[in-house]
From TrEMBL:
Localization annotation: Cytoplasm
Family named by the database record: Belongs to the ThiI family.
Binding site for ATP: M184, L185, H209, F210, R266, G288, Q297
Pathway: Cofactor biosynthesis; thiamine diphosphate biosynthesis
Domain THUMP intervals: 61-166
GO molecular-function term, one example from the UniProt record: CCA tRNA nucleotidyltransferase activity
Protein name per the record: Probable tRNA sulfurtransferase
Length: 402
């Protein structure tokens, strides 16, 4: 079956006015970006739908594979085109239904007649086309409500457009339509999921990672670059900042008692992240924190950590169970990377009994004996930035996430 174009439907119907324009423009750019190596692909955006046209059959196939990853698309349908002529339409209808894209027993034809000069009324067309389909596929029965196969016939000035399959899109909003944030990306399971969820809400991201060589290895870093690349497949490239954190961690271990060192470590990380955030012009910081998961994620701990900044911290996993998070990470293809066994900087310096209710005054007291700000500035300055990764399609299955 040769498809001539893809009809793309937008989600978020509540979007109005100017927001809609931003949404459509971003979506168009993101689709273009994801298809940039496919020479024959062209896009035509309308107010509430978009058409992707590809002259090359291979390009069309690849476009159909890539579209389910792009946020802001509610659903899409490959469409076959023929002359706006009843016999041609009947013939095409058989091709479309026989293409193997749709299965089921019940069937309905729906006609949209934008070209009012077409010499048949809707009822007649339905009868003619439906009758012809039934004569070729005698196992089908007509059903008006919720048919298994819905054959849409759209008659426009430039031809008739037929489709019978609706693919689910990734939903959400186009990445970049809701601002930019900085994701604190460890090598763990949670933070990539947090990044994914905000990208789904239209936030574009940079990522920041704290590494403590030689305590953390090159392979641990590789994990994080692989995670970044996987996140990049969801519609927009993610830039990664790697922070040399060893010196600060050693200073913390020396200055702060064991049971408060985790809190101080987090506070230092957050201050560094906040400075990088400011430099790159991002508005918020994203973390993978989930309430009660570990000592540093109690409300008391979060409060003590959060005290160092007034920047909004987005914690999309705060109320999720570990199993729910794992489930998402498997579906978005980050789980297998996250479980590679290389140490995170925090695990290495983790004290045996961190306080679950650290007192801010106490933490401030111990931090006051050492001049941390120069080390913070130095870490910010000495970061390595890895520019946007090459676009790569994730091979994850999103179908029941959406
Ligand atoms: P994750 O699975 O994301 O590592 P976690 O359950 O292990 O999370 P913590 O180790 O307490 O939880 O980390 C909480 C959050 O702090 C992480 O989700 C991440 O956003 C941030 N974080 C922790 N370690 C690092 C790091 N080395 N680099 C960047 N961010 C980090
Ligand atoms: Mg972790």
């Amino acid at each position: 079956m040769e498809w001539n174009e893809i009809l793309i439907r937008y989600g978020e119907l509540s979007l109005k006015g100017r927001n809609r324009n931003v949404f459509v423009r971003k979506l168009k750019n993101n689709i273009k970006d994801a298809m940039r190596d496919l020479q024959s692909v062209r896009l035509k955006a309308e107010r509430d739908r978009m058409f992707l046209v590809a002259d090359d059959e291979e390009d069309m196939k690849k476009a159909i594979e890539r579209l389910p990853h792009i946020f802001g698309i509610q659903s899409f349908s490959p469409v076959a085109k023929c002359e706006a002529d009843l016999d041609a339409i009947k013939k095409k209808a058989i091709d479309v239904i026989g293409s193997g894209e749709t299965t089921g027993r019940t069937f309905k034809v729906e006609i949209k007649r934008a070209d009012k000069t077409f010499p048949y009324v809707t009822g007649e067309l339905q009868q003619e086309i439906g009758g012809h389909v039934l004569s070729q596929f005698p196992e089908l029965v007509v059903q008006m409500k919720k048919p298994d196969i819905l054959l849409l016939v759209d008659i426009r000035k430039d031809g008739a457009f037929l489709t019978s399959k609706v693919f689910k899109g990734a939903g959400g909003m186009p990445v970049g339509s809701n601002g930019h944030s900085l994701l604190m990306l460890s090598g763990g399971i949670d933070s990539p999921v947090a990044g994914y969820l905000l990208m789904k809400r239209g936030v574009s991201i940079d990522a920041i990672h704290f590494a403590s060589p030689p305590y953390t290895s090159e392979l641990a870093k590789r994990k994080v670059t692989d995670l970044t690349e996987q996140l990049s497949s969801f519609g927009a490239s993610v830039r990664l900042h790697i922070i040399p954190f060893t010196e600060l961690q050693q200073a913390i271990v020396k200055q702060v008692p064991d049971n408060l060192s985790m809190t101080t470590t987090r506070r230092m990380m957050l201050q560094i992240a906040d400075k990088v955030r400011e430099e790159i012009g991002a508005l918020a910081i994203i973390t993978g924190e989930s309430l009660g998961q570990v000592a540093s994620q109690t409300l008391d701990s979060l409060t003590a950590i959060n005290e160092v900044t007034a920047t909004p911290i987005l914690r999309p996993l705060i109320a999720m169970d570990k199993l729910e998070i794992i489930d998402i990470s498997q579906k978005i293809g980050t789980y297998d990377i996250s479980i590679r066994p290389y140490e995170d900087c925090c695990t290495i310096f983790t004290p045996s009994n961190p306080k679950t209710k650290p007192k801010i005054e106490k933490v401030q007291h111990f931090e006051s004996f050492f001049d941390f700000p120069p080390l913070i500035d130095e870490a910010v300055r000495n970061r390595t930035t890895i520019e946007a990764f090459e676009q790569r399609q994730a091979d994850a299955d999103f179908s029941d996430l959406l």
